[in-house]
Amino acid sequence: MSEKSPVIWWVRRELRLADNPVLQNCIETGRPIIPVFILDDVFETYGACPLWRFGLGAAHFAETLNALGSRLIFRKGRASDVLQALCDETGAELVRWGRAYDPEQVKRDTGVKQDLTAKGIDAKSVAAHLIFEPWDVETKTGTFYKVYSPFWRAIKDRHVADLIQAPSALKTPAKWPASEDIAHWKLADPMKRGAAIVARHICVGEEAARDRLDRFLKDAVNTYKSRRDYPGEPATSKLSENLAWGEISARMLWHLGHRAIDEGKHGAEHFVKEVVWREFAYHLIWHTPHIVDQSWREGWEHFPWNEDDTRIDVVAWKTARTGIPFVDAALREMYVTGHMHNRARMVVASYLTKHMMTHWRIGQAWFEDCLIDWDPAANAMGWQWTAGSGPDAAPYFRIFNPVTQLEKFDRDQVYEHRWIAEGLSNPSDTALSYFKAVPKSWGLTPDADYPDPIVALPDGRQRALDAYQNRSF
Ligand SMILES: Cc1cc2nc3c(=O)[nH]c(=O)nc-3n(C[C@H](O)[C@H](O)[C@H](O)COP(=O)(O)OP(=O)(O)OC[C@H]3O[C@@H](n4cnc5c(N)ncnc54)[C@H](O)[C@@H]3O)c2cc1C
Fold this sequence. Notes:
Layout: E1 7-10, H1 21-28, E2 33-39, H2 41-44, H3 48-67, E3 73-76, H4 79-90, E4 94-98, H5 103-118, E5 122-126, H6 148-155, H7 194-198, H8 206-227, H9 240-244, H10 250-262, H11 268-287, H12 312-318, H13 325-337, H14 342-355, H15 360-370, H16 376-387, H17 402-409, H18 414-419, H19 429-437, H20 457-469
Parallel strand pairs: 1-2, 1-4, 2-3, 4-5
Helix pairs in contact: 4-5, 10-11, 11-16, 13-14, 13-19, 14-16, 15-16
């Protein structure tokens, strides 16, 4: 291999310079680095919001690289073909990328590796997305974990490698390959008029992510354990948005979280434990990839859930007009901000899968369309946990009551009034912004009457319990 030929850094969901083992691996080759993003069929099938948010992150990262005298090359096409063409054009003999664990990307990456290796190119993935590789955490009998608590106990005292500093310069090639213009891809188009509104709530890029973490660890972490369930309060980190696109590393959250524990900050250990839920989700998706599209426990595939997403009650759920304030507030929060509070996610998922007896896959797909923090592992695990079909799941008969949940966690109606406009003489701007964000074709106006519940809570609960008791598995 020629020492001068470049290494291609295939950039995917790790849009950062700091603590980036893929970039470090490229730097250690001593070669010029060509960062490349490929809009391939995996990215193109992302939901509207993740695709748009990723595009903003990638454009921002291109500017970050420009500031170092480097570039981010944008290409479109089948990943294997694009990478081979780039190797031919630039003489690159090495390709590196951040390892993925979800079945769709694993399949694509396995094919890319085979194709490039067959051409004599040294093609490798590098661990950068997680703190613990899924196969490095095993039970005493050598199998994977199906329950979170023993998973946590297995890793909580492990040594985690130190953080990697961001480089101050990158070696550049003598000649850059041509790049497409990401703006021409129109990644915001599927968002329609919602993009301008969701844009007010996002926090793009590595610096912003780091500020977010520092602010959280300075103040909010102290009350994290006691207040994290209150959706009206700014009690959580909101870092899922940045973790999803790799604008900050999970390892950084682990290390700075531990520093906060050492400083005696209340809530810091609980925060690290939550970060480890993300690790657990990836542990599950790696060992049981069917979690993304089939009920994890096989029997649940036969449960009589509705799978028709055009049904009137499902449309009411998606358009946040179920008549259940906690459910509607949460779904509106997601539509307007691209984020939904964790307790709210559990409540809307429970209402859909239990009171409405509708398949978790319908909710999972809607979240995939609307979340800026969409994550294939956490989303699949969250839905199956709530539906009762997953490992370590909430028992099916434990059905969240969205009325008592709201009374308990939103006693002063802060969250409800933030998101529900109907019936109020002076609704909040956030509540009104939902009506500006949604497509006009939905025909929603804030001065309409607030709907009656599409499913009365006692009836829905009883129907779900009956179906559960009569199940044949
Ligand atoms: C039905 C359902 C769907 C979900 N879909 C997603 C998704 O697509 N993307 C996503 O990132 N999270 C998802 N979650 C998990 C969780 O709701 C979010 O991670 C959390 O609300 C993010 O807010 P935060 O960053 O303020 O979290 P914090 O409370 O500040 O937690 C810090 C980090 O820990 C991780 N974390 C916390 N709780 C969980 C959890 N229950 N599962 C996995 N990781 C967790 C996240 O990376 C989070 O950023 C889902 C949960 C449910 C019940």
